[in-house]
Amino acid sequence: MVSLILVVRLSSVIFSKGIGMVDPRISFAEDHTRQILEKQRQQQMAAFVAVSEGEVSRTEERIRQATALATATSLFAGSEALNRRTPPGVNALLAGVKSARLMPPGMQISGSHGEVAGAHGKAFVRYRPEPLAIEILSLGNVRDDGPALLVRIPVDGMSGTNTSGAALYMATSLEQSRVPAPFAHEAEIVALGFAPEPLRAAKLPKP
After folding, report:
1. Environment class of residue 109 by beta-carbon count within 10 Å: exposed (0-12), middle (13-18) or buried (19+)?
2. Residue 74, domain extent
3. CA pair distance 109, 94, nearest whole angstrom
């Protein structure tokens, strides 16, 4: 009996020393999942911002603004011409458009030579009283604002102009440095590196 008791006591001491300690710290799977979802959300937001603020989006905005400016200036000039109050120059034309509250949203006159500023570029209004002709040359502020644009309204007798609607010409390179002269023939515009683009939404009435 004495020997049996001693063996039991010694065994308990030996086995107790061989048992390791358990780390009570626990890592929750929910925390890891939350971190993954947050990282994915940030990546999605970054991708959305890149698309919405990229070259394509800014170019589309500049096309809309240039077309709206062409529409406003042409309708005002046509109306004034019918009333025998033809604006003598581009400054008088823009002043009248502003006074009539026809300036497109987000654009404002910024110079004395037909310059109108927008969020992502500058538009230069080209105006010829007789025979009536209007062009809008749009240039981006930086490379990401997109290529140079030229919007021309239809005017009968204007060489190289599509009289069925507004004409849009877009530079084929972001490095385009030469721009067409005012009211140049379409062949000259294309020779300078501009390509005609469809602009079906802009159907302007004849003055």
Report:
1. middle
2. 56-197
3. 8
142 is a domain residue:
yes
pLDDT tens-digit readout, 124-175: 999 999 888 999 999 999 999 999 999 998 654 444 444 446 799 999 998 8
* pLDDT tens digits, one per residue of 29-53: 667 777 777 776 766 655 444 444 6
Quote the CA–CA distance of 192 and 207 in Å, as a whole number.
Answer: 30
Distance CA 170, CA 179 (A): 11
- Residue 173: inside a domain, yes or no? yes
* Domains of the chain: total: 1
Q: What stretches of the chain show up as alpha helix (H) in DSSP? A: 2-18, 29-52, 55-82, 90-99, 186-191
